[in-house]
Write a structure and sequence with these properties.
By secondary structure, this protein is of the alpha/beta class. It has three domains: 193 residues, Phosphoenolpyruvate Carboxykinase, domain 1, CATH 3.40.449.10; 274 residues, Alpha-Beta Complex (Phosphoenolpyruvate Carboxykinase, domain 3), CATH 3.90.228; 74 residues, Phosphoenolpyruvate Carboxykinase, domain 2, CATH 2.170.8.10. It contains 16 helices and 29 strands. The strands form six sheets. Strands 1, 4, 5, 6, 7, 8, 9, 10 and 11 form a nine-stranded mixed β-sheet that branches. Strands 12, 13, 14, 15, 16, 17, 23, 24 and 27 form a nine-stranded mixed β-sheet that branches. Strands 2-3-19-22-18 form a five-stranded mixed β-sheet. The chain binds guanosine-5'-triphosphate, sulfopyruvate (SPV) and manganese (II) ion.
Amino acid sequence: MATASPLPTPLAHLSRPVAEWVESVRALTEPAEVYWCEGTDAEREALTARLVRDGELTRLDPETYPGCHLYRSSPSDVARVEHLTYICTRSQEDAGPNNNWMDPEAAHGKMRELFRGCMRGRTLYVIPYCMGPVSSPLARCGVEITDSAYVAINMLIMTHAGRPALERIAHEGCFVRGLHSTGELDPNRRFIMHFPEELSIESYGSGYGGNALLGKKCHALRIASWQAREEGWLAEHMLIVGLQNPRGETHYIAAAFPSACGKTNLAMLIPPNSMPGWKVFTVGDDIAWLHPGRDGRLWAINPEAGYFGVVPGTNRETNRNAFDMIRRDTLFTNVALTADNQPWWEGLPSGVPRIDWRGRPYDAASGPAAHPNSRFTVSARRNPSYSPHTDDPRGVPISAIVFGGRRREVAPLVYEARDWAHGVLVGASVASETTAAAVGQVGVVRRDPMAMQPFCGYNFADYWRHWLKVGAGLANPPRLFHVNWFRRDPQGKFLWPGFGENLRVLAWMLERCAGKAQAIDRGIGLLPRPEDLNTAGLDVEPEALSALLSVDTELWRREVTETRAYLSQYGERLPREMLSELERTASGLG
Ligand code: GTP
Ligand code: SPV
Ligand code: MN
């Protein structure tokens, strides 16, 4: 006799603490219905179909872009809002000069008034999620409540979401609470609040990216960086990439670049034809959680399951992997459309934009066709260079950590830190030109230590102290480097071709790790000479290469002065080692 398969337990019955929290939010926000996400493909398709029916999503040409959709956000809601993002700790000092701060009581009071009744007539979605493979002891769970189906779909792609995550939460009893409502999308009633001491997040008034997909920057960086300090690990704004050399050996590199400065592209790099035998495997493109291992090395997991990547500039030449990846089952946000319903963005060699990102007939006079911060959301498994080790619960061992920024001058193509403590100073000194990933002026140089200025959930002085401590505890720490793919000549042209050619620089780093490649101490750190890089088949003039690998002592003295002024804001809390490393650099410059 066949036995009927048992009905699955309704999700709300799996975890009482989650159910109680959902009930309290329901009572406050008064939605028309409550929906718990299971995390299946069928569910995501049903949610997508509902948004298409409601006119919120546009189905793209099924011949050329099967399973792809376009979403247009509110034109005033197109990027992260750093000026409206707060760390709410009991003591303001704990948030530090690097964060906006609000008293937790005051912040909860303010948010409670915004959330009261805000979901009337809407659906409240409950999304249990796990950041990292559900089977990994390094992963951490959360639950996002949102009234946006678009946010729910993004979270289902970007995280390990649904029943298995909720089962882990039920078992562990601990989760990060993230409450989100799109509200009226009024920039004057928009706040992204973090309560690291309570492991909770409250976000109101934006439906976009890092403001609203709470597993990403809010949880996996701001809250997780706080947890990581308490537990002895690091939560960082870093890609993770595996590089297999022609001898068949694979080494992993983690790299921190500010938003829209090349992480996704480096993580999916395609080796140049003139470097045969190299293979690249992507583990992560935006966030890395780094844990000291028993073997004295640092091990990394990617807490995410998808990519929320910058669309403009993606094409067959710059990044064929990404270009192929986003031709199927991809959610596009704020790109333009051609007359035959294909997505279009700046940097595509063909096609003509007909409708711009706002949904208006395209007119070159009113700016770019696709928004400069237009994005794709896609499962990491669609990536042709997806590393099977992404799912390894132990993570991958890291040989080198790379910091970088977007700077037209000063920073050379690459240099290596003298040791870990110097590397912490190098990371803390990162400065970069601002990009369209956050609201505000684009192209102004600002300090962005470890690419974490918008994302560190506590005082940077304490964060650097924590970095120093983690490194001191590693018997076999990664080597630390700094890169700049964005140096320009006086005419404004990039000196370095970037993209796949960046492998030449990464290969030098791995040779350094193996104790094989040469480097010269130039005061700021150790630089390769042009002959130390593999330049076979590289199309760069010798003058450009020597400019890329030179240190302008005058400019660097000024840089040291600016760094000293920047660090002095952190006062007594700043680890003394940072200043002694800086003085060592100053004297090395002569
Ligand atoms: P977030 O998702 O915001 O964290 O950005 P990201 O760091 O992943 O940046 P991404 O790889 O998406 O690149 C952002 C922009 O920089 C895109 O327009 C790329 O085309 C461009 N870019 C990436 N790598 C390079 C490079 O090596 N050289 C040059 N010149 N441009 C690059
Ligand atoms: C970034 O800005 O660094 C991003 C996009 O990766 S967002 O999810 O909006 O933070
Ligand atoms: Mn990012």
